[in-house]
Write a structure and sequence with these properties.
By secondary structure, the protein is α+β, with helices and mostly antiparallel strands. It is built from four helices and 23 strands. The chain has four domains: about 90 residues, conserved putative lor/sdh protein from methanococcus maripaludis s2 fold (Beta Barrel); about 90 residues, Elongation Factor Tu (Ef-tu), domain 3; about 50 residues, OB fold (Dihydrolipoamide Acetyltransferase, E2P); about 80 residues. Helix 2 packs antiparallel against helix 3. About 15% of the residues are buried.
Amino acid sequence: MNNTKIIIAIIIFSLSLLACNQESAPLAQDTRPTVNAKIILVGGSNVDRDYEVSGKVTAKNNARIAARIMGYVTSVNANVGDYIQAGQILAIISDNELQSSKAQAEAGIREAKTALQNIQKDYNRISALYDKGSATQKELDDISTQKDVMLAKIKQAEEGKRQIETTLTYTRIKAPFSGMITEKHIQGGELTSPGKTLFHIESNRTFQVEAMIPESQISAIKKGKEVNVIIKSTRAKIKGTINEFSQSSTNTGGQFLVKVNLNKKDVNNTKLFSGMYVKLRIPKEQNDSSTGIDKKILVDQSAIIHKGQLTGIYTLSSDNQAVLRWIRLGAQYDQQVEVLSGLSIGENYLISTDGRLLNGVKVNVIQ
């Protein structure tokens, strides 16, 4: 019994010492790095409303070059990415059979002309005898018929030769205009046939933008109107002018095709390639009844975080920590970009000044 009391007393004493040690232990300090950042309050900006649609860059001149005859390709003189000149020979198709046919046609023409010379002599002789009354009308008619038949035969043979010569030109595949080879579908030694695509060529550095405009926005379209074109991959902004647009959407599902010429100087200063996707921003007309002013959320582009296909922005929590928030972006306005969702008026976002913002990092707010 006494031993039990002693053990209990020892346990109580140990617990008392432990409690005293815990009370006297200093609190752990927060050693996380602190990033200086500016805090910006989100407000609504008055921005004139524009129409915005997606489009694609296309070459102003492009052509599908196809074979017009059957034959074996003896040589290919152009590859994808080559810059070629108008009239340059891109490929050659074997013309042995055509050359043989041409030689036969020429031989037939020579024979027919020789025969015509003999008939002409007989015609002259019989015609003279007929004038003297020594030849009958039937004899003169027969020789005249032979002469007409031979003339028709020569004419037919010469027409056949011209057709062969025209077909021979099809064995030389030439570039219709200067540009770049974007596709090649033939190799030397292959058998080609009429209609088979051999090359695709696009004009060099002469681009346009093609876009489909819904009928709700077609009222803003006018030939010669200046628009803004934003390249999605590079975010570069260039000027364009509406060059043509279809006034019928019967065969396009209610969409109207619009083509925009790009400023040549901007094109030369921009890494632009056919097939790039763009945003087309079309200002509304002054007399458009739907024109108005929108309150839009605009943030500095330098505050935007890109992670793969996602875009985000850092906001400040109540305990001064950086919090990454995913947002959806809209149109660009010079150094700012519109936030469509994920951020509201009255909230805030951060712009780092001397360090990299990370989710959860401490923030020292500076002016």
